[in-house]
Design a protein that fits this description.
The complex is a heterodimer of chains A (515) and B (377). Helices cover 32% and strands 26% of the residues of chain A. Chain A contains 17 helices and 22 strands. In chain A, helix 6 links the parallel strand 7 and strand 8. With 377 residues, chain B is an all-alpha fold. Chain B has a single domain, classed as ABC transporter involved in vitamin B12 uptake, BtuC (Orthogonal Bundle), CATH 1.10.3470. Chain B is built from 16 helices and no strands. The longest helix of chain B is centred in the C-terminal third of the chain and has 36 residues. Chain B is globular and about 65 Å long.
Chain lengths: 515, 377
């Protein structure tokens, strides 16, 4: 290997990029407070921090989406000014967003060419683009077909298209914003192989994630931000996950939640051969049979889009079951209305909490009574009882430690973690018999995640039957008593926690039976 | 400080938009060779210049407010009601029929029944598109507009045939109008002007609608369905029912406006063939008044008075300086366009500020004050 100044893509490498004393103020908030950050050619530098710690702001400044109030950016030692994403792309900085910026109905080549001038003027040059994509794919070991339509690709493949897109535009330095959030364990491994290849070739990578074990696995150095300030930068070899977690949260965090003892009781929720359609009219669930017993957490593991949403919705009455039956404590609840299922004390924490669980233009108090607004003490003879609502809300805000200026604050103004606390408060305060929790910690920071998990475990100890649907394997493994793996609308297998490993579950999630 | 300024700015935005519209109108007046100062002085004088003028403003504001109250309900339920005109007409027809049919009944009782009839007529006319929307997913903007056309033709038919004034039926002219209501059926006058008890009814109902929307389970459900039908359904609310109900109630208030117009001002129904010939376009202007009042029933009171003033003032401006009546219509249109677009602009500004604030919001840190301000609705 020669120490050439060029990357395999033919672009000049960025030996070092340094952000110095970056400060960014928003009305009422100091988002970045004199933050220093740097990344060198050939390394993965992880940026770690809770939601709102200022990671996104810092990266948006680097990518030209925001302008810093103070501080400067040095590229190979020379100050540069980045005032738009165009500037940063021209300097060789690329960004892989958490939500892909791809057009599903176009091919890979068309997506890559999108927004770039054609080499043939008014005519398209997709053949040249495809050729270049194949070259890049070969150099970086990315398997990709330029003629494939994006909608046909898996999430992992779509991410590769994003990486190719950045490389095509000449990125020497890549910002990867939570790239693993949507991947299976196997896809994460593949991404890491690509990332390692890229660093060997001289690219610099900035890796943003909450998942500590991934950060520790892939990065050379780690910088932790908290409340807009830099807490420190350390070589990965000199830190532990526990240190990092404490740095992020600013206090000691318990890693493995305390499960405690729980007595298994009778089956509370029984599903018998459930079939239903998905939103596109195809089979969403194909004969799912499960049971959740009192005092247990049944984990539902699986890659996104394999029927999790349909499962939750058909149990809670939001989706029509085409065949099969659901029983709650022995009583049939197949295809009854969501209102009746609510009456039978089933609680639901929906996956899309802002769409299905909350009315964001309503106040905290109004959201807290959503399920029971027509009952005493919240309603009398058709009139709302404001005093009853107020005292109920104040009690729950305190009990569930919701950080809100008041009960009259609109829910949309709360942070994600606090919104989820409002949802938990509403659903758990009803003393449910069964809880369906779908992706209950998605997008939450460590502190809020820890809190939600503790609450679910507390419910389990009280004897509630909990179904935990999650794409986060760590969460499934930490909380569940048994784990059902769902693949293409069917239960692949149900594994007791004692024998479950990420590898085994990963294979099942990909539709492969181990052994 | 900056945030307080911007909150104040938001609150004054409709007023600023109105002034901006008048400024554009001034340019048009200049082109016509009229001094805007004289013209607007005449406008102000016509609306507020005397006790009589102000009473006239309130007379015009009354149907606007009643329609606006219904609009507050339907728009809060995320149902767009453009059918105020038709609902007013049907409400008025039914109320007139009551007054012309039951002539032996005491006056106060007839007034009560007539108002109820108006309410009911509007409810039916709003209810048809409401049910179509709720249960067959028919776009309510289209259906309410079409119901307007049907209502106009129904009015023309009834006033030329079955409901025509018997004395006109004898004459060759056959003016399409009903007989005049008996004097004891008229809504009481509040002062020696045309101001009638309908204004009090409208203001009283503004408070009723406020209580309905924010103090009853019914209002809670209408607002919940309007803001997020998914979450409402999951919470066990029958979303279709409350969608339909929002449009039924909205129509009912417009129908009441029609009844009040007949019993308080015209004392008979007469048609020139168009809807606005009877309604004075209150079914549309009421929407603007409601938006001006930020879809809040209480704020709709001053908003309606302002629009009433504009209507009355524009008339006297026309008389004073002899400008084409088309300009008056244009001026009204300008105000509507400016106010509605300023509302969209305000929402966008608010969203942008929220997006910035939220992104940077740090757990444990208090929410920025400007964001809290938005909460204090």
């Amino acid at each position: 290997m020669t120490e050439s100044n060029l990357l395999p893509s033919g672009k000049a490498r960025i030996d070092s990029l340094e952000m110095r004393g970056i400060t960014k103020r928003f009305p009422g908030v100091l988002a970045n407070d004199h933050v220093d950050f740097d990344v060198k050619s050939g390394e993965v530098h992880a940026l770690l921090g809770e939601n709102g710690a200022g990671k996104s702001t810092l990266m948006k400044i680097l990518y030209g989406l925001y302008h810093p109030d103070e501080g400067q950016i040095l590229l190979n030692g020379k100050p540069v000014s980045i005032s738009s994403p165009n500037d940063s792309i021209n300097l060789g900085i690329g960004m892989i967003h958490q939500h892909f910026m791809l057009v599903p109905t176009l091919t890979v080549a068309e997506n890559v060419a999108l927004g770039l001038p054609s080499s043939r003027g008014a005519l398209t040059d997709l053949d040249r683009v495809s050729k270049r994509i194949l070259e890049l794919a070969k150099i970086y070991g990315l398997k990709i077909d330029p003629a494939a339509y994006v909608w046909q690709l898996s999430v992992g493949q779509q991410q590769r298209v994003e990486i190719i897109k950045a490389l095509y535009r000449g990125a020497a330095l890549l910002i990867l914003d939570e790239p693993t959030a949507v991947l299976t364990p196997q896809e994460v491994d593949e991404l890491f192989i690509i990332m390692r290849q890229m660093t060997r070739d001289g690219h610099g990578l900035i890796f943003i994630s909450h998942k500590l074990h991934e950060v520790v696995e892939i990065s050379a150095r780690i910088t932790v931000l908290r409340d807009g300030r830099k807490i420190g930068t350390r070589p990965t070899s000199e830190t532990t996950k526990q240190d990092l977690a404490n740095w992020m949260v600013g206090r000691e965090v318990g890693f493995a939640p305390e499960r405690g003892h729980s007595d298994l009781g009778a089956a509370r929720l029984q599903l018998d051969g459930i079939h239903c359609k998905n939103d596109r009219g195809a089979q969403g669930l194909r004969g799912v049979s499960l049971e959740v017993r009192s005092g247990e957490i049944l984990g539902i593991a699986g890659v996104s889009g394999n029927g999790q949403r349909e499962l939750a919705e058909s149990i809670t009455g939001l989706r029509k079951i085409t065949s099969g039956r659901v029983r709650l404590e022995g009583q049939e609840i197949t295809n009854v209305t969501p209102g009746e299922i609510t009456e039978r004390m089933m609680s639901y924490i929906p996956e899309e909490r802002m769409k299905d669980g909350m009315i964001k233009e309503f106040t905290v108090a109004e959201n807290l009574i959503l399920r029971e607004h027509h009952k005493s003490p919240f309603s009398r003879n058709g009139f709302l009882n404001l005093r009853g609502i107020a005292s109920h809300s104040d009690r729950l805000i305190q009990e569930f430690r919701v950080k809100t200026p008041s009960r009259e604050t609109l829910v949309k103004n709360l942070s994600g973690g606090n919104i989820q606390k409002v949802a938990l408060a509403r659903e758990l305060s009803r003393k449910p018999r069964v809880i369906i929790a779908a992706q209950p910690t998605r997008g939450l920071d460590i502190g809020a995640t820890e809190y939600v998990r503790e609450q679910l475990l507390a419910e389990r100890r009280k004897g509630t039957a909990v179904m935990l649907i999650s794409e986060d394997l760590d969460e499934i493994l930490a909380l569940s008593d048994r784990i059902a793996v769902i693949y293409e609308g069917q239960v692949m297998d149900i594994v007791p926690r004692e024998t479950a490993t990420p590898q085994k579950l990963g294979l099942l999630m990909a539709g492969v039976h181990p052994e | 400080m900056r945030t307080r300024m911007s909150a104040l700015f938001d609150a004054l935005l409709p007023v600023i938009a109105t002034l901006a519209a008048l400024a554009v109108g001034a340019v048009m007046l200049l082109i016509l060779g009229v001094s805007p100062v004289t013209a607007y002085a005449a406008l102000f004088d016509g609306a507020f210049g005397s006790f009589n003028a102000f009473a006239e403003t309130l007379v015009k504001a009354t149907p606007l407010l009643l329609v606006a109250l219904g609009i507050c309900i339907s728009f809060r339920g995320d149902v767009i009601n453009i059918g105020g005109e038709g609902q007013m007409i049907v409400g008025a027809l039914l109320a007139t029929w009551v007054g012309l049919t039951f002539t032996e009944v005491p006056g106060w009782l007839i007034v009560v029944f007539a108002m109820l009839a108006g309410f009911l007529g509007g409810a039916v006319w709003g209810g048809i598109p409401g049910l179509l929307k709720a249960y067959f997913n028919v776009n309510e903007i289209l259906s309410t507009v079409m119901m307007n056309a049907i209502a106009v033709q129904l009015m023309n038919f009834l006033l030329r045939g079955p409901m025509i004034d018997p004395s006109q039926a004898q004459l060759a002219s056959k003016i399409p109008q009903t007989a005049r209501l008996l004097d004891e059926f008229h809504l009481a006058r509040l002062a020696p002007t045309r101001l009638h008890a309908g204004a009090l009814i409208a203001v009283g109902l503004a408070f009723v609608v406020y209580i309905l929307l924010w103090r009853t389970t019914l209002g809670y459900r209408i607002r919940a369905v309007g803001q997020n039908p998914h979450a409402s359904r999951y919470a066990g609310i029958k979303t279709a029912r409350y969608m339909a109900l929002a449009l039924i109630l909205s129509g009912a208030f417009a129908g009441l406006a029609g009844a009040v117009q007949v019993y308080g001002v015209n004392y008979r129904m007469i048609t020139d063939g168009s809807a606005s010939g009877f309604t004075g376009a209150a079914g549309f202007n009421g929407i603007v008044a409601a938006l001006f009042g930020q879809l809040h029933p209480i704020l709709s009171i001053p908003a309606s008075i302002l629009f009433g003033a504009l209507l009355v003032g524009a008339n006297s401006m026309q008389r004073a300086i002899q400008i084409p009546s088309a300009l008056i219509t244009a001026l009204n249109g300008l105000v509507v366009v400016f106010v509605v677009s300023s509302e969209i602009w305000r929402r966008r500004r608010q969203r942008r500020r929220l997006a910035v604030a939220k992104e940077e919001e740090t757990p444990g840190r208090p929410t920025p004050p400007e964001v809290q301000k938005e909460a204090a609705r």
